[in-house]
């Protein structure tokens, strides 16, 4: 039988992680976190883009409805303006053009988030018929 003092110095198998195992676990964890953050960032950008396009489409539909309800035969040409919607100023460009039908006009409305934006957030096209017989 061993004495109490000799039991203290008995070699036991090591428990815990080696430095290499800890480093590998940190690399796996870091890679996973980086992937998740990139994925979340992409989803946030997509959500923001959808919100911008949806609101721009509402502005274009509102402008088209306003033109139709005006009751006047729209003049051929380009008009510009802005409109407040969802706490932001939106910039629209309306182009009225002839069609092959004399009593039909094509209306194209482009809406931009900023007036200096090269590409519109949305483009909406419609037609208005003359009420004259």
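-> sequence recovered:
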């Amino acid at each position: 039988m061993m004495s109490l003092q000799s039991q203290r110095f008995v070699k036991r198998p090591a428990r815990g992680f080696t430095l290499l195992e800890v480093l590998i676990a940190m690399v796996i964890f870091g890679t996973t976190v980086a992937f998740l953050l990139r994925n979340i960032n992409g989803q946030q950008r997509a959500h923001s883009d959808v919100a911008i396009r949806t609101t721009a489409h509402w502005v274009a539909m509102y402008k088209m409805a306003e033109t139709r309800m005006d009751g006047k035969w729209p003049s051929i040409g380009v008009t510009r303006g802005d409109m407040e919607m969802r706490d932001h100023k939106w910039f629209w460009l309306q182009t009225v053009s002839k069609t092959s039908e004399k009593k039909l006009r094509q209306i194209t409305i482009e809406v931009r988030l900023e007036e200096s934006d090269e590409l519109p957030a949305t483009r909406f096209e419609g037609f208005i018929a003359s009420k004259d017989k």
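Strands lie at 77-85, 88-98, 104-112, 122-129.
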